[in-house]
Each structure stands twice: as C-alpha cells, then as structure tokens.
Amino acid sequence: MRIAPTFNVAYRALRRNKMRSVLTALGIIIGVGAVIAMVGIGNGAKAQVEAQIASLGQNVILIFSGSTTSSGIRTGWGGAGTLKIEDAEAIRREVSGAIGVSEEVVSTTQVAAGNQNWFTRIFGESADYFDIRQWPLSDGAPFTPQDVRSANKVCVIGRTTATQIYGNENSIGQILRIKNVPFTILGVLTPKGLSPQGVDQDDIVIMPYTSAMKRVIGGTTLRNINVQIGDPSQIAAAQQQIISLLRQRHNIRPGRDDDFTVRTQQEIAEAATATSRVMTVLLGAIAGVSLLVGGIGIMNIMLVSVTERTREIGVRMAVGARGNDILTQFLIEAVTLSSVGGIIGIICGIGASALLSTYAHWPTLISIGSIAIAFLFSAAVGVFFGFYPARKAAALDPIEALRYE
Amino acid sequence: MNNGSLVKLIDVHKTYRTGEMEVPAVRGVSLEIKRGEFLALMGASGSGKSTLMNILGCLDRPTSGSYFLDSADVSGLDRDQLADIRNRKIGFVFQSFNLLPRTSARENAELPLVYSTQRLSHAQLRERADRVLASVGLAGREDHPPSQLSGGQQQRVAIARALINDPEVLLADEPTGNLDSRTSVEIMAIFQQLNERGITIIMVTHEQDIAAYAQRNVVMRDGVVVDDRVVPQRSDAATQLEQPLPSTL
Questions:
Q1: Is ipTM beyond 0.85?
Q2: Integer Cα distance of A148 and A206 in angstroms
Q3: Which residue in the set A1, A312, A398 is minimally distant from B115, CB to CB?
C-alpha cells in the first residue's frame, strides 16, 4: 500500500468529522500544553535557584565552625567557635589553588546616622570577599587589605541599608555609627536581590573582620571561612586538603568527628535545586495525567470511528486491502490527531508560559529538549492509544464487515 | 486445468460452527466456469448461494474441497494472500453499492488501485478512473459524491470500481436488488456489454427475470447445486431499453 494515499484517507476521515476531531485533539492540546507550561515553570524556578546559588560566588568552599561533640552536646554550624583566624591564614598559606580567602564573622545590630537608624546585618570579611562573591560596588571603593590589617573603622553598605538610612542622598564618606563606633562608608554595593533562603542580601554592612571582631562583635573565633579555588577541577582536592589541614591544626584524632564542616558551593546548589527539581517532576506528572486522559479520548474516538466505518473497512478489504493496510490507516489517523494536537499544544504551552512570566512574574524556562520530548510523547500517545482500535479494525472479517448495518 | 476454465470448484464444503452445532452451508459443490461466461447463481435465501459467492470471491475459505481460480489453487491461502487475489483478479459489485460516503466517484473508482502492487502516478490513477467511469456512462460525473448520484449511477460507480484493476472475474451480489426495474435493465445492459467484451461475470440473484440476462443459470438448494442449464431464451437488455414503454419486467 502506498503511504501518501493513506495519509489522504486519514486526513479526509478526520475532516469528515471536524468537530469530533477538534475536540479529540483538544484533549491532547491541553495535555501537551500543560506539560510544556508546568515543566517550564519548574525549570524556571530551578534556573532561578541556580542563579541565586551562583551569586554566592564561583568555585567557593565554605568552612563552618561547629559540629563538635563536647560532653555529648553537639553544636550546629557556626555554633562552637572552633575556627580561628590562624586557621584561615593556614589555608591561605597552604591550600594549593586557593585564590581568595575571607574570614567571616556575622552579627545583627542597630546602626545609626544623623536622626535615622536601622537594624541590619554586620558582616566582617577580608578584602577578598568582594571577589569571592563576585559582588562589585556601584559607588565608591571597597576596603583594602591595609584596612583589614589595621582594623580601620571603615565599611561598605548594601543598597537596602543605604536607602533606608540615607534615602536618595549620597552615603559615601558619611559616618555610620555602629554600637556607637563611627565607621566611614567607603562604598555602596550593587544590588544582589534575595538569597535562596529569601533573605534580602542588600540589607547589609560589610567591614573588615578585624574591625568587626575588635569593635563591634567581640570574640576571637570566626563563624566561617570562605575559600575561592581558581580551577574548578581542583575543588574536590582542595576540600580534602582543607579537611586534613584543619583536623591536624585542631588536633583531632583519627576516628573522632570533625569540629568543623566543609561544604562546596556545588553541594549547597544540589541541596537547593533538589526542591525545585521535585517540583518540576511533580508538576510534569500532574500535567502528564491530563495528556493520558487526552490519549484515552483518542482511543475512545478511534473505537467509535472503527465501528462507524465497519462497512468502509469491509469494502476496502474486499477490493484488496490487507489487515496491515487497515491498521496503518487507523494508526495514521490516531497519530495525526495526537501530533497535530501536540504541535498546537506546544504553541499553547509556550504562550501560557509567556503569559505567566509577563503577568504573574513567574520565571519560566522552556528548552528545545522539553519541546522535542513533548512532541515525541504526543505522537507516542497516538500510536499507543490508536493501536488497539486499529488492530480491532484490521482483524475484522470482511464478510461480517460488509454485512454490518 | 482445462484451457478456458477460469473457475473450478471440486467438492467444496463450508460448515459454520455456532457453539456446539455445526451448520453446513455448502455441502459438496463442484462447478466449472469458463472464461467469458455470464453465469447467474440462483437459489432461495438459505440455499448456500451467498456462502458459495463468498468462497468464489476469496472472502472466505472452504472447509474442505478445492478452489482453482485461473489455474491456481486458492483454497489454502492465508488472509493477506487472499487480499492480493481479490485485488488483482476479482471485482465486486454489491447490492447496496458500498461506495465510500463523501468521496467523489473518481476516488471511489480508484480505491482498488490504492491497495495494488502497481505503482501509478496521481495522474495515471486519475486517467484510468476517468476512462473506466466513462465506459459505464458516467463521464462528467467524476467529482460527484454518492449522495449526489442516483441509485443506478451509484451502482455504475461500483462497477467502475470493480473493473479498474482489469479483473479476471466480476462478482455481483444481487446487483439490482436496490434498483427499480428500468435501472435494473440499464445495469444488465452494462453487464451484457462487458460480457461481450470478454469479461467473465458471476451474478447472484433470486429474480428469475434478472437471471434471464445471463447465459447460464446455476440453481442451489440446501447447499447443493440442483440445476445447471443454459438460458434458452436470453433477454437482451439493450433492445429492451430501446422500447419507448416502461420496462415490462
């Protein structure tokens, strides 16, 4: 049998029942459209989380103090105060591939300038911090290693803090009083937005960690150390090196737990994107159910069609159609319904995602891959749900079929 | 096989099984039909003539016995092989026309070629369909769907469809059953014309006067052939059509 006339036959049969074909295809259109839109939303959310993770900086290893067991009491990350400034210096000195190290101490406190005051987060960092986090300043200049060494009373502030205290005025060179210590503002950071945990990253004051420890927070231990590795392929090796270096420095005997925790940015990213991946799968699965329902619709209509056209099938068999010819004809009909529905569904899905991005401001991301998979899947739905009716048609007895009323 | 023998049935039986019961429909028919014959197969309802017709048309297989069509034994062929035989050697004309609805006369006539092993271009298909439609008097009606054609015209489309593959034999099952008497004569005129051109025709009918247009009448009763004779006074459809009065059938 020739394929071109078979397509023609299928096309004619579909046109003969326009409304029915449109409604059947609608099931697939909605199914595929939903899959495209839902997976787009899921992937968009995932991409957003990944972008936020990337904003932590490139190739970063984070070392937290804590996770120690003393007298059976375990402390959480950053709790035990086991990281010393000397540890950071040792890492800076000995870990190969470390291109930036920043000692970090964190606190929250009230800051004031003129008649304004604001409750914000204070970060003590080294001068490498702005490179590690790839966080440039929009105005002014960062503090220098000299400022760190001398524990100078200088700081840079985030955009939110700047707006809250100074409004639209220029804040550079102004004096900010933190715990009654006057700090000179050297610069304002570019806005970074929300963190993956939903914290406003721009609500911040960053100063040399030495100044923070000496003049604001007190104490002698670090909450964590940020290390940036130049070559991504060396991250795993550097992580091991840091662990053994710190175990040695902290005199931890073999078999005992670390009193610190080392996390690569990769690990943090994986944990954060796991949620959105689950969401993508879940949304896709729910949309997939509607595609399944659409497929059942195709099967239903094809069964009706086979019954209605029993005589036609009989005539075709009488003039020489083989079982396979009939099977092919009905399969093509089903696949045409499902794949045309699939194509329209893809267009609708893209449209729906665009509307969601524009009006609801949901991030959506539609990949060529998900479009291709949706199309192939819709065609497969046609084959799968069209096969049973088509086989039923092909197995008809020509005599019975010709006699069918 | 004898030369000139197109159809040869040797002791053909067909038994249907309904549950535990075995119902014999054809009980030992031997029949030989020569090339170029015009044969009417007659009998009352339940005589087994339709079953025999289905076997002759390769729509069904005999339970036992042999069927030689064009010197080839077709009694043991499978479904697909039978489909090919039907496509190449047999043209069907049915009582209820069995045209595809909402499909033009031309495309209805082309239908067997769609399943043919021949590879014809679209233009060749069209040309052949138009020629065969013209030969049954339907020139100018090629684009009409069945709903816009009279019963007689629809049966002519069906005849055109049966002829398009140059079959060895034309099988007609009560071809005039749904037609008025005048139109019936017209269809018989076409059959006689085709037969004169050398086409073998086997026609099932229960009407004596329709059978009178054939050369040979075979009568069945209770699954066996009870009479097989040459028609003594054959009706000539073309002459009857020339008479101005409505047919006396």
A1: yes
A2: 12
A3: A1
